[in-house]
Amino acid sequence: MQPYITEQLQQLSRAASELCSLAPQIEQAAQICLSALRSGHKIIFCGNGGSAALAQHLTAELIGQYKLSRTALSALSLTVDTSNITAIANDFSFEQVFARQLEGVGVAGDVLIGLSTSGNSRNVVMAMQRAQKMGIRCIALVGAKGGEMQAVADLALPVSADTSAHIQELHIAVGHLICDLIESSLYA
């Protein structure tokens, strides 16, 4: 087992070191979010499964606090309202669960951050397409292949990992950096 553990950690370490090449895109993502927050808008997150958990986690970093004691920032996750999700999935389709919610709570000037290891999660792609029509900027956190989300987003951050677990581990690192840059720019 130990050789396998070592191999997995080495793969993650290599992929994490390659995040340095995304520094310009991470800075750009933070600037997009800062612009929205400074103009009274919000950051909206969505994703499925582990990516849904990351969406909720990053929302909590912005509403609660990341490193600094400060006022709450305007953020929400479209993954938390089971009544909305199940009603929309039942009455429309599961592909509509994020787009339909976004239609109700999003406004031009907001930012949608979609998370997907494949970049092809249909419900996230459809939310991004709806966001574009609404004047909402889109940031995609995706795996190395980028998928359809990369083509739809205003800005894509494809992390260089092959497995869902490692992609998600890198997404939380990128998300934390974005939260850090937002918080330090607004409150430091």
Describe this structure in words.
The chain has helices at about 1-15, 25-40, 50-65, 80-90, 95-105, 120-135, 145-150, 165-185, and strands spanning about 45, 75, 110-115, 135-140, 155-160. The chain is of the alpha/beta class and about 190 residues long. It has a single domain (about 1-185), classed as Glucose-6-phosphate isomerase like protein, domain 1 (Rossmann fold, 3-Layer(aba) Sandwich). A 5-stranded parallel β-sheet has the order 2-1-3-4-5, with helices on both faces. Helix 3 (about 50-65) runs parallel beside helix 8, helix 4 crosses helix 5 (about 95-105) and helix 5 (about 95-105) packs parallel to helix 6. The chain is globular, with a radius of gyration of 16 Å. The model has no long low-confidence stretch (mean pLDDT about 95).
The CATH class name reads: Alpha Beta
What helical percentage do the residues reach?
55-70%
Strand order of the largest sheet: 2-1-3-4-5
How do the SSEs run, as a string of H and E? Answer: HHEHEHHEHEHEH
- The radius of gyration over CA amounts to 16 Å
**Number of helices in the DSSP assignment:** 8
Structural class: alpha/beta
| Alpha carbon gap, first and last residue | 45 Å
Structure summary, number of beta strands: 5
Biggest sheet character: 5 strands, parallel
Concise overview:
This protein is of the alpha/beta class.
